[in-house]
Amino acid sequence: MPRIRLTVAYVGTRYQGWQIQGRGETIQGAIEDKLARICGELVRVHGSGRTDSGVHALAQVAHFDVPESKRHIPWRQALNAMLPDDISILEAREAQDDFHARFSVRSKRYAYTLWTEPRFTMPQRAPFVWPVRGLDFEAMDQAAEVLAGTHDFAAFQNAGTEIKGTVRTLEPIVRAPGTHSAEWVFRFQADGFLKQMVRNLMGLLVEVGRGGLAPADVRPILEGCDRRKAPATAPARGLTLEEVMY
């Protein structure tokens, strides 16, 4: 059966994440619903990984297999004509049989955006940022240096997913200006991420920026591998999946 690879962008605000669940709308569910209408049967879509409720994507990758008779359908145009405005197929192309959107992944990059303007948040940006005031960015950068490298990130994994291990390799965290003068974007790239790992790392960095923790406190939290000792999870709305590398 032909295997079709998709690159998908979406605003996750009103969805219960990527993966189909017992209730609520999901990105996977929306795409599978449209594929079923086109193919006349259930077509399972496999994503590169879950994104949580409220998390966005600029380039989620997914794949699905279709009958030979459907091979030459212009999938990008067909799906975009049916999907809601907050989901868009950026690219659709045939992939090799051994390509798998999840298991072929080499690394992923996420971006988390903070809004630092002390008086207001731009309404158009509100669904995509976490408003946080008075941050010490120098302290946050020092804390970020401790997190880079190959570590056991168990202290930054929320419960809910069965996995074989919690060791991951995190590239140096990059901080850069955002699209608005009040925004700062933190980019996280790794060979894999645990459940809500980026949001938990961001929660830690913000706590350091607020002065609730010192940069010197980060290593003991990291090496302690105890989620209860780490700060609270950052809100979902500031997080975007930017790129999946194969």
From TrEMBL:
GO molecular function: RNA binding; tRNA pseudouridine(38-40) synthase activity
Active site: 52 (nucleophile)
Catalytic reactions on record: uridine(38/39/40) in tRNA = pseudouridine(38/39/40) in tRNA
Keywords for this protein: Isomerase, tRNA processing
Pfam families: PseudoU_synth_1
EC number: 5.4.99.12
Domain Pseudouridine synthase I TruA alpha/beta per the UniProt entry, residue ranges: 8-103, 143-246
Binding site for substrate: 110
Enzyme class: isomerase
Statement: the UniProt record of this protein carries the keyword Isomerase: yes
Record-linked CDD domains: PseudoU_synth_EcTruA
Biological processes per GO annotation: tRNA pseudouridine synthesis
Family: Belongs to the tRNA pseudouridine synthase TruA family.
Physiological role: Formation of pseudouridine at positions 38, 39 and 40 in the anticodon stem and loop of transfer RNAs.
Complexes and interactors: Homodimer.
Protein name, per record: tRNA pseudouridine synthase A
Originating organism: Desulfomicrobium baculatum (strain DSM 4028 / VKM B-1378 / X)
Organism classification: Bacteria, Pseudomonadati, Thermodesulfobacteriota, Desulfovibrionia, Desulfovibrionales
